[in-house]
Specification:
By secondary structure, this protein is mainly alpha-helical. The chain has two domains: 68 residues, no CATH class; 33 residues. Helix content is 63%, strand content 0%. The chain contains five helices and no strands. The chain is elongated.
Length: 101
């Protein structure tokens, strides 16, 4: 969305294939195994290498099932997010009550 709103960003960053600044995190579709996902991503990587041999030669993909925060860290983040959401909701409720007065 930002690249659409700011064409200069797109021209500088998104269109330059030789810059490897982007990392991706994701979740597997239920029922998909890591080896299946790796095979699919390897196929995509090979197609990109064929389409852009000067830039994508030698690049590939890697998957890890242990990437991301540990369960305890995730639980703490969820708790903090819940508290912040409750505070934001309270502020919005109070602002709404103040407008009606």
């Amino acid at each position: 969305m930002y690249a659409q709103a700011n064409p200069a960003f797109s021209e500088r960053r998104l269109d330059l294939r030789q810059i490897s600044w982007l990392g991706v995190l994701g979740r597997l579709k239920p029922g998909t195994t890591l080896p299946q996902a790796l095979a699919d991503l390897t196929t995509i990587s090979r197609r990109l290498e064929d389409a852009y041999p000067d830039v994508d030669k030698g690049w590939g993909v890697a998957l890890s099932g242990e990437l991301g925060p540990q369960p305890q860290t995730r639980a703490q983040a969820r708790a903090r997010t819940g508290v912040l959401s409750a505070i934001a909701g309270l502020v919005l409720l109070l602002a709404g009550l103040g407008i009606d007065s």
